[in-house]
Structure formats: C-alpha cells, structure tokens
Amino acid sequence: MTAALLEIRGLGKRFGAVTALDAVDFVADRGEVHALTGANGAGKSTLMNLLAGVYAPSAGEIRIEDRPVRFESPAQARTAGVAAVYQELAVLPELTVAENIWLGREPRTRWRLLDRRALHERTARLLEEFHLPLDPASVAGSLSVAARQLVEIARALSSSARILTLDEPTAVLSAGERLRLFDTVAELKRRGLLVLFVSHRLDEVFEIADHVTVLRNGRRVFDAATADVTRAELVRHMVGHDVDDRTRADRFEPCGSPSMSITVRTRPAPLGLQLERGEIVGLGGLVGAGRTRLARRLAGLEEGVAVDYRIGERRFTVRSAVQAIAQGIVYLTEDRKRDGLFAGLSVLRNTSAATLASLSRLGFVDSREERRRVGPVLERLKLVAASLRIPVRFLSGGNQQKVLFGRALLARPLLLICDEPTRGIDVGAREEIYALIDTLSREGVTIVLISSDLKELLALCHRILVVRDAAIVAELPASASELDIVDAAVVRAPRPAR
Fold this sequence. Notes:
This protein is 34% helix and 24% strand. The protein has 18 helices and 22 strands.
C-alpha cells in the first residue's frame, strides 16, 4: 500500500512557557483538499508555519511519502515540495506577474542579464497549464486581491509544489472571486496536489474540502471526512460546546428617546438617514457597492464630505474623524491590521488610542488612569491576553477585534459603525461579538452594521438598507430573505418611505 503524501506524528511547538501545539497527528494524501479549522489561537497558524519551515518543531515529526523531514527554513520546505500562501500576501506591487512568480529564479542570458522573453514564455506556459487567468506582463499593483492571490499560487506551483497551504484565502474576496479560486483549487486537486485549506468559514469547508481536522487549544480534537460530519458537530468541536443558529426574533421597539437624523452632503443630491436609538441597521449589498464608503462618510473619514446630525434639539456637523469621535460617532474599520491597530504598541495603548486626550496632562499620559479605564472594558469583553503590555500583534484575530471594540466603548459611542466586525475570527469569538452588539443595542447605542455574510445581517439587524453606488436603493425588514437582499442589490428598487 502506498504511503500517504503527508503524515504528522505527535507534532508539538513551544514558545518559552507557552505550548502552541501539543502532540498533533493527522494524515493527508494526494489529490485531496484537507481543511484545517478551529478557534483563533487553536494552533492552525503554528502548524502551517511548521510545515512551511518558518518554525522548527519542539516535538514530533513531519513525514512526506513516509520519509521524515525537518525544515530549518522556508527554502528547505519549498525544495521538498511544500509551499504556503498566507492571508497577508507577499506580492511586490511594482513588479509584473512574471517577475513576482520567478523572483530570485529568473532566467538569465549568457551575460547574466534578465532574459525577458524566456521569462514571459515560461510564465505563459505555467499559467496555461494550470488555467490561471493572469497576464504575465501585468503589473501586480494593478491587480485585484484575488488576482494577486493567484500570483502567489502560481509562484508556489512554479517550484513544483506537491503540498500547498492556503491560509484564510477567501477573507477579502467577493463571491465571484471566491468561486474562481475554488475552480483553481479543484484543478490543483485533479492534478494530484494536496491542498491544506485553513478557514473559519464552515460553508466553504463543506463546499470544497474532502476531509476536515479541528484544532482546539493546540490539540487535535476531531478528524473526519466532511461527508460524515454536520456543521453543528464541527462548531461544537471548535468551541467545546453547542452554538445555536441565531435569528432576529424580536421586533425593534423605539425606546422613546430622540431619533437620529443624518444628512450626508453628497452630489448631485444629499443622502438622508433616520436611525432610532438602540436600533441595529444593516448595510447590505454586493462587494464594491459602496457600503464602506458610506460608512466612512458617516464617521467623517472622507475628505470634503460634511455630514449633518440632529438628535432631538441637538445639532452638529462632522467633517473629520476627530469631530466625529468627539460627538460619539465611532467607526470600526473592516481592516484591523491596516487601518485599526498599531501593531507594535501594547494592548493597553491600542485600546486607549481614541481617548488619549482625556487621559493626558501637560502632554503626558496618566498611566494609572489609563489602566483604570481600560481594564474593566477589556474584562467586560473577555479579552484573552497574557498581559495588557504585550504588543497587540501577538493576540489572535478575535482578541484583536475585542481591542478595537474596547477602544470604541471608551469613546462612549452614540452611533457605532461596525464594518465587517467578525471577519477573520472564529465561531466562538463571533458569538461573543454578536452578544456584545445586542447588549450595546439594549443599552441605547445605535449601530450601523456592514457584513458580507447575509445570514449575519439577517440574524443581527432590525432592518437592512441595501446599498448600491454608495446610495441606499432599498429598505428591508428583518424578516427579509437572503434572496431579497441580493435582488434589491442587483435590481434598483425604489426605497420605501418610513
């Protein structure tokens, strides 16, 4: 009997006193899509980094075709046929597709100059062989995120990879881009590659994976063919308990406080919104519809656009983020790593970042007062961190998101704008975020929620505004269906009067 392509035996990794991976076993073979899932901090990234040669294991072994291997560097892993495509893409925007694929391995002339003709021909053959829709001469910086991801995959295939790891590959892709990626993965599977697919999105696991392994707290807790397991079972293994599917059963009842009237001064016509105190209003629509642009306008983040607010007798205009925060209008970015977090600063300072002025005297931060305010907020959010003084980059995605929520809560928001608040976080952390949003709503915070997950919108929101071209084209109740949202997003419909 032929040995499996990849076998993991008792693999472990320690970082000082912290055990990130503990005696993990699993087997995966050629022509298979093997999903690896689990909560943030479960050990998925550590396992992928051990396979890719980023780390050396503290215990156990990796076997390829029944031969033990030990990688001291990513280059050694690539030589053995293991390639990784990470969520944070490493494509160089100034170079062409061809130059990115063969970076460091470019064909040379006899005079050691770059042979551009050979480079283009070699790239064209590779892209044609694997049916990758890319132009070798395109500059990478002009490509979509999905296309740049294909460049990374092509780079891996150019090194004769037999094992390809994809880390959260669909996190920022549209539905169409996701389908094209899945077509590519299916082609790689037909060609006998082993694809290790890391994802929090269980619908994708069931759509594309043949087998699934679940990690929890650094240990393998479940392993099965996807055909033999249900979504509820996977969720239970991921978080350690049952999680019920959410539905928005309650009907929103205004609490009697003044409503919030908003006018966004856009051309050719202004855009108006009416929000009730404590209401959760979703912004639905297709990727590229302008939901984030509208949300950023509300928070004073688009230069040259003024927004007029009226809350009862109180009136004010927002032209900048500083003015918005001062008035209780807080925006949670969809891209926490690029726009939200200061990676090198502590958890404490990241949480207090929006309210440092109120914590400072004569230009110096009152550290004692900072800890006094931040501590209870992060405790409420059930933040898991070894210390508030460690850099925020060392936290899991779910805990990083909690830091952003903590920053928002310290600003005492009247209107909290959440842009993709559960992107890239696990099922357990997602449930905690849902519970927090519900709690804030009951406490009187008005929430505008953007999500590409239509089920999430329907489960959380009291009503949904469908956006196209940064304008509202329809208004739907919480009882609407996913099809209703898509229909309204594709076919311009009149917005019903409230």
